[in-house]
Amino acid sequence: MTRRGAAFLLLAAAALGAACTSRTPPPNVVLITLDTMRADRLPAYGFDAVATPALDRLAAEGAVFERAFAAVPLTLPSHATLFTGLYPPRLSVYDNTGAPLRAEAETLAEVLASRGLATAAFVSSAVIAPGRGLEQGFDTYSLGKQGCAGSARLRRPAQEVVDESLDWLESHGSSPFFVWMHFYDTHAPIQVPVDFALGYADPYLAAIAYEDAQIARVVDYLERRGLLDDALIVVTADHGESLGDHGEEAHGLLLYDEALRVPLIVRGPGIAPARVPGAVRLIDVMPTVLEFFGRRLPAVQGVSFAGLMSGADEAPREVYAESRYPERFGWANLRALRTGRWKVVDSPQPELYDVVSDPGELRNLYHSNPREAAMLLNRLQGGYAQPQAASTAPVVDHALASRLASLGYVAGPPRPTKAGSAVDPKTMIETFNHITRGEAAKAAASGRGRMSGC
After folding, report:
1. How much is the pLDDT for 6?
2. Is the pLDDT reported for residue 9 higher than 50?
3. Any idea where the domains of the chain sit in the sequence?
4. SS3 letters across the chain
5. How confident is the model at residue 215 (pLDDT cuts 50, 70, 90)?
6. What pLDDT digit, counting tens, does each position of 10-22 carry?
7. What tens digit of pLDDT does each residue of 30-44 get?
């Protein structure tokens, strides 16, 4: 182990059990978010139809959280919750085409920068391009080179993200760093190199294998440079992908676990290999990382899961989720709350699931278990801020809205719903699929959906 690695081992142990001194050099932090990555499609979570040797290694050497959940099945608001430790109602960031993250929000990057870390982010989708608020606290924030005739890019492949990230790591010097890499390859429309496309009949699995190969490049680089033992590595996703479950082809509308359960793997000195069964949330990532620095937490709703990694028996965490995307279509918004074995979905046709005996959420027990349903709905309505009126989520500029349509997102203004006559989104899922397919097809026909420009 390197001298810096030994220092970080002491720091990690102190962070898990006692306050650490401000004189201890901070470790490096590497955050990788895999957009649209469904947890149960990875070998680390029991899936065997795709090869992911890099992720398998990180999982074998770190803590694997078996039940980690996003708060929103959409890219921008979910990343906003991860970087701030706050739920969407506190941030007023609800979907990809509404208001960006406000400047007054304190982000993980800002806190780490204040501790002297060099900060850099390399992202791969216009959904989180500069100007959408996530750049706060980053010295460098890049979506790569411009597209045709200087136009802003829509997306780029993971290889370019890693190329740029490694170039930055090579040039930035020996000071501690926080680098965030965002991969978008598993998001439709999927485009991967031919050798991966030929290796898998399922494009989604081909994209997973491709992203894993890029993660391997990052791990190999850190290891060659003697930095791996100095790095707290966090790999997670902003949300999953429905892949046809509950009728939803992609994500964004419904609040079932296929779109909310995400992988979460944390590797670093002082973190023993473990499978962590307790439920955690993406809002818990920020306070967990900051605990390794002995840093006083901002006012966040998340709770560090460092204790869970060390085997502590903690009280179960409530898991809140919402989707305001349905209001783009004039349908009812959705909210959900999970406590222990029960999960309730607040909608015009409410749902209650025993997620222990029915993990696929196929048997709605709302009417047969009124006591549990009422208890969770009361907690949901009393413990979490109600979504604000649709008028508080303005649409961004028309150019961005048009470009996001090529990814299947509807970017028009929210349509008002009449009181007492709200439409339940799950009854409109085929309409939703048809609309999003049509948006993507129109964009592809006009050339807006190309991976990287000219």
Report:
1. 39
2. no
3. 3-15+24-315, 321-446
4. CCHHHHHHHHHHHHHHHCCCCCCCCCCEEEEEEECCCCHHHCHHHCCCCCCCHHHHHHHHHCEEEEEEECCCCCHHHHHHHHHHCCCHHHHCCCCCCCCCCCCCCCCHHHHHHHCCCEEEEECCEHHHCCCCCCCCCCCEEECCCCCHHHCCCCECCHHHHHHHHHHHHHHCCCCCEEEEEEECCCCCCCCCCHHHHHHCCCHHHHHHHHHHHHHHHHHHHHHHCCCHHHEEEEEECCCCCCCCHHHCCCCCCCCCHHHHEECEEEECCCCCCEEEEEEEEHHHHHHHHHHCCCCCCCCCCCCCCHHHHCCCCCCCCCEEEEECHHHHHCCCCEEEEEECCEEEEECCCCEEEECCCCCCCCCCCCCCCHHHHHHHHHHHHHHCCCCCCHHHCCCCCHHHHHHHHHHCCCCCCCCCCCCCCCCCHHHHHHHHHHHHHHHHHHHHHHCCCCCCCC
5. very high
6. 334 333 433 333 3
7. 999 999 999 999 999
Alpha-carbon radius of gyration of the chain: 21
| The domain made up of 3-15+24-315 is a member of CATH 3.30.1490.190 | no
Task: Give Cβ neighbours of residue 204 (< 8 Å, ≥ 6 apart).
Answer: 41, 186, 190, 241, 243
Angle between helices 53-61 and 203-224 (to 10 degrees): 60
3-15+24-315 and 321-446: identical CATH topology: no
Residue 220 has pLDDT above 80, yes or no: yes
The pLDDT of residue 152: 64
Contact 205, 2 (CB under 8 A): no
CATH code for 321-446? 3.30.1120
Query: Which residue from 200, 218, 162, 279 is spatially nearest to 41, judged by alpha carbons?
Result: 200
Give CA 452 to chain center in angstroms: 23
pLDDT tens-place string over residues 56-73: 999 999 999 999 999 999
φ/ψ of 305, rounded to 5, equals -105, 20
Mean pLDDT computed over every residue of the chain: 86
